[in-house]
Design brief:
238 residues; alpha+beta; Elongation Factor Tu (Ef-tu), domain 3; Threonyl-tRNA Synthetase, Chain A, domain 2; 2 domains; six-stranded antiparallel β-barrel; 15 strands; globular; binds zinc ion
């Protein structure tokens, strides 16, 4: 179990934490700013700095078996002596921020293309893609690029929040705007709201305003099967 600090504040670059477990080349902490691979977003990389000066490179972050277990994959073998030690945990921020921009861009893409989403991916090179359930190719590259850049320029606030299942039931119009049915049974649902644009269940990390994404372009639209159109997007600024 780890306190997942990135859920409440995606802009946290580092935190102090205690090593709670080690196993081979993996480390668990009591709290972390490292996002584990999920929802199409790659896991964070970074450094765990021990008080004795040892710097441990984290090459990947994954979900563990427990409900909120976060596994930090390191370059080398973890020492059992490290359990109980305090570390400064810092993510590779430039890379994460680029992932947050692409992730938020995919929410905009979802709002622009009126079709169900069947898959997607976010890459750390500033590109990403979504697959849409569309039998015919009615999508226009230039139109989508223009619509995305308009939403970026309009600078909509991006707000993650928790809503109760009761609140969702009282506001059926919220459900209508969701392209994915939210998971039920836990009492509350984490949603990502881009004001006047999009509302979806999502547990990932996002920028706080759409202008932070910067100018974007649709790279290409591919036919991937009879009912599948893949839209590839790219950030135009590093
Ligand atoms: Zn998201």
């Amino acid at each position: 179990m780890a306190d997942e600090l990135f859920r409440a504040d995606a802009y946290l670059k580092s935190c102090e934490a205690t090593i709670t477990a080690v196993d081979g080349n993996t480390i668990e902490l009591d709290r972390t700013v490292f996002y584990p691979t999920g929802g199409g977003q790659p896991g964070d990389r970074g450094v765990l700095a021990l008080r004795d000066g040892t710097r441990i490179t984290v090459t990947d972050t994954r979900k563990g078996d427990g409900a909120s277990a976060v596994i930090h994959v390191i370059d080398g073998q973890a020492s059992p002596d490290w359990v109980g030690t305090t570390v400064d945990a810092s993510i590779e921020w430039e890379r994460r921020h680029r992932l947050m921009r692409v992730h938020t861009l995919l929410h905009l893409l979802c709002a622009v293309v009126p079709a169900g989403v069947t898959g997607g991916a976010i890459r750390d090179d500033g590109t990403g893609r979504l697959d849409f359930d569309l039998p015919e190719s009615t999508l226009d590259k230039t139109e989508i690029t223009d619509a995305l850049n308009r939403l970026v320029r309009e600078d909509h606030p991006v707000v993650p929040r928790w809503i109760s299942e009761e609140e969702l039931d009282r506001n059926p119009e919220l459900v209508r705007t969701m392209s994915v049915a939210p998971p039920r049974g836990q009492g509350r649902i984490r949603v990502l709201e881009i004001s006047d644009v999009d509302l979806q269940p999502c547990g990932g990390t996002h920028v706080s305003r759409t202008s932070e994404i910067g100018e974007v372009a649709v790279d290409k639209i591919e036919k991937k099967g009879k009912h599948n159109r893949r839209v590839n997007v790219r950030l135009l600024t590093p």
